[in-house]
Amino acid sequence: MLFHVRMDVNLPPAMPPEQAEELKRTERELAQRLQHEGQWRHLWRIAGQYANVSIFDVESVDALHTLLTSLPLFPYMQIQIMPLCRHPSSVRDSDA
Ligand SMILES: O=C(O)CC1=CCC(=O)O1
To answer: 96 pLDDT band (50/70/90 cuts)?
Structure first.
């Protein structure tokens, strides 16, 4: 199942910089592992914002929930999810 996910990150201004850097480092490691594994298909920065749009390819809504809640930055993100299905006019298959 494909999902379009928008994540807006809001770290508390009072968070110590070392804690913020550690969260970002562990988030990056996990995000890159999930991209290599194929579950995190796209990861794009929204220009000018501390936010991203991503495409996830996971087994189920429960799997997406488990993945998103495992992200180190999860407690500091607003997340919007759009489930995707094939458009009848699309010339691509869902693996493209
Ligand atoms: O910087 C972000 O948008 C949050 C994030 C998601 C994956 C990652 O490495 O950082």
So the answer is: low
Q: What is the pTM of this model?
A: 0.95
For the chain, the structural domain boundaries read: 2-88
Pocket test for ligand 1, best of 23, 24, 44 (most atoms within 8 A of CB): 24
Domain 2-88 is of which CATH architecture?
Answer: 2-Layer Sandwich (3.30)
Angle, CA 82 vertex, CA 95 and CA 75 arms, to 5°: 110
The CA distance from 83 to 9, in Å, is 21
Q: How far is the CA of 27 from the centre of ligand 1 (A)?
A: 6
ipTM value: 0.97
